[in-house]
Amino acid sequence: MTRATGSPPVIVVGSANQDYIYRLAVPPGIGETVLARSLLKQPGGKGANQAVAAARLHGNVSFVACVGDDDDGASLIRELRSEGVDTSNVEIIHQGRTGLALVAVYDSGDNAITVIPGSNFSLTAGRVSATVSRIASAGGVMVVQAELQTEIIGAAIRTAEDSGVRAIFNLAPYQPLPADLLAICDPLVVNETEASSLVGWPVRDPSSAARAAKQLRHLTRSAVITLGAAGAYFIDRESTGHVPAPIASRVVDTTGAGDAFVGALATFLARGESFRKAVHVGVLAGTFAVGSPGAQSSYPTLADLNLVAPGPARGRSATVS
Q1: 162 noted as active-site residue
Q2: Is there a domain that residue 321 lies in?
Q3: Which structural domain, as residue segments, surrounds residue 218?
Q4: Which biological process annotations from GO are given for this protein (predicted)?
Q5: Which residues are annotated as a binding site?
Q6: What pTM, to 2 d.p., does this model score?
């Protein structure tokens, strides 16, 4: 895939893992041994997933990460480059193992994921700050997730703020973070479980998400709560609302659907689209992704979503069906 250029950058700071996806009928109980039906090896990691999701939709994506000096690391870099992601800021860690994720997928389409961080934890705050400040430019966005150490997340978000680019933070998996860091996220993106951890009570549907979003608005500049098959709820200074999801023709695997949402959201915010439209495209991307196995391989292109590429003049025109 040809790398998109000329549009504001989407800088993704995050994890890169090799995913080992195995299928089971139902989760095993404590002490129980079960036989998996199949094993699939695919590129993953929340950061890499979001970078690919953004690039598939013509985002001008640069990825800041670390991989090990091993076959998995080399494979991940090749896959990212083939998707049009700039990997010049991916550091290869000698004597380090590339991160990996063990993904169990059940017949229901739900999944459970265990991550072994490996070289992802070799990122340093100094390197992240220097890289983000160097490649940031007007109109761009910076995306980071919580599969990284706290100091790396903080460095990415604060450097984005200092560089004048929008900081998108996907608080997944949930971890407690300082209030002053959450305050400059724009938006903070969480699912129902992560939102529940933040507000202190269960968030399960659009109604409870609406209440939670109002509470989150006091913690951050803007927020999105993703709701799976129910779409997403968003709030910022100007607007708030629920974006329903189209009915998926089939649900094969929900792995990485949230990352598809974040990558699409980031790309359309960088294109200058409204928050509501960016959330809408994110919902379309996440819904499309559940129809195929794996993460990155399931992500849509603009054509898949009946969207058009940016025009040469404005660089951000889009139609949403």
Answers
A1: no
A2: no
A3: 9-28+36-304
A4: D-ribose catabolic process
A5: 17-19, 45-49, 147, 191, 226-231, 253, 255, 258-259, 289, 292, 294, 298
A6: 0.90
